Amino acid sequence: MYNDRDLEEFSNAYSLVKMLKMYPEFNENTLDVTFNKGEAFFRKDAHRYCYLVKKGYFKVNTMTEQGNQFLMLMEGGHIIFFPLYYSFVFNDLVATALEKAECLRIESKFLKKVIALEDPHNHVALQYLTQVSRRFYSSLALISLSSKQRIVYTLIELVDTFGRHTKASVIELPSFVNYDTIAEFARCSRSYTVSVLTTLRKQNVISSKKSGWTILNEKRLREEDHGQKNKLLRKK
């Protein structure tokens, strides 16, 4: 059984890049790339390369005949579509930049070679699976919540994962947060999402301006009916 802190120490993004740079073929197997807002790449390409997010945010969706379904968010320091194994089951996954993002593109064969030699206990793979499983668990648990609960819970998830305290009780949310993204993440219609968020704004719980979204009263937000009995893992 691994301690979270120990696992993170061995498998964080800085340690991974440092490990890769030990090999002279690092430069020919990696490339710094920039994704503009809305640009995307697919899981089916993971057999060729994966991406280490250096800066910015991505959403991961599944695209099937039934439609486009949001699954999770990934931010700086995380690998998107780590090449654990090949499977057609997950080839419908797509990662889309929510804002301008900087990534290190890594050739999958090179990554697997280095990890096999330098990480025999699979710390990097375990850390990746831990991060992804937490996000999948959170996404699946939304099914048991009401529409309003999903919207409020989504806000709380954004606060706990990406929120930045600027004052004692004010929390700044990332620039990609707006009515459309919250509606998508909460799996609610835009009109209903606007209605719920408008009520929260009138109660001075949130502020939604062009300059950015902020939480003005975190305590009040957490007191909303967001399904405490379904409280989930909120660690990154």
From TrEMBL:
It comes from the Bacteria. SUPFAM superfamilies: cAMP-binding domain-like, Winged helix' DNA-binding domain. Residues 149-223 form the HTH crp-type domain. Gene3D superfamilies: Jelly Rolls (2.60.120.10). GO terms for molecular function: DNA binding. The keyword DNA-binding applies. The keyword RNA-binding does not apply. InterPro entries: cNMP-bd_dom_sf (IPR018490), HTH_CRP (IPR012318), RmlC-like_jellyroll (IPR014710), WH_DNA-bd_sf (IPR036390). One of its GO terms (biological process) is regulation of DNA-templated transcription. It holds the Pfam family HTH_Crp_2. Keywords: Activator, DNA-binding, Transcription, Transcription regulation. This is Crp/Fnr family transcriptional regulator. It comes from Listeria booriae.
